[in-house]
Design brief:
alpha+beta; Cyclic Phosphodiesterase, Chain: A; 4-stranded antiparallel beta sheet; 5 helices; disordered C terminus
Length: 201
């Protein structure tokens, strides 16, 4: 199974981005635009796992969730990988605050302890909006694609409330992400929860 781990978000960015993504799909045939149901903030990409490794990954996800409190995810601005002159991926940035870094760190430790692959590179959290399809694209068209990021709507903060292990099923169209394990954060931070709940704590 091809698997990855992402944050489980409440009040996610899909509703705010749906119209913008649809316009992007209409205006730029050169882009493979992410369907709103596939928008996710990846914590770890695990690659192809056998059944035993998937079970181990599920245990690691639960351990990481148990050591993490609910927190707020603040979205920032649009950007690209690897460069503005020749972008391959369009993304929405995330404020790299300590709660998010903590969630990534404890997950990486739990995965490593389970003998599962952990990417040895700097964590650069983002929400993938689109990928540039392979083919000939002019420099002017690249500039137009990058300029379109300036029209991104404001996206309100989301609540991170769980860690999710997904299977990514590839086929003729967009990948289908199937949740295998959803582990809610066990240590709810009362100060953070106050921002999302109206009833008294």
């Amino acid at each position: 199974m091809r698997c990855f781990v992402a944050l489980g978000l409440e009040d996610g960015p899909a509703a705010a981005l749906a119209g913008w993504l649809e316009q992007l799909r209409h205006d730029f045939a050169e882009l493979a635009v992410t369907p709103t149901e596939n928008l996710h903030l990846t914590l770890a990409f695990l690659g192809n796992l056998d059944e035993a490794a998937v079970t181990d990954a599920g245990v690691a996800v639960r351990l990481a969730a148990a050591a993490t409190a609910d927190f707020e995810v603040r979205w920032t601005e649009g950007g690209v990988f690897p460069s503005r002159s020749r972008p391959r991926v369009l993304w929405l940035g995330v404020d790299r605050r300590e709660p998010l870094l903590h969630a990534h760190r404890v997950l990486a430790e739990a995965l490593s302890d389970a003998g599962l692959p952990v990417e040895d590179r700097t964590f650069r959290p983002h929400l993938t909006l689109a990928r540039v399809r392979r083919g000939e694209i002019t420099a002017q068209r690249y500039r137009e694609i990058v300029a379109h990021l300036e029209t991104l709507p404001e996206v309100w903060p989301s609540k991170a409330a769980s860690v999710v292990l997904y299977e990514s099923r590839l086929g003729g169209g967009p990948a289908v992400h199937v949740p295998l394990v959803v582990a809610g954060f066990a240590r709810a931070d009362r100060r953070q929860l106050g921002r999302f709940r109206r009833e008294p704590l």
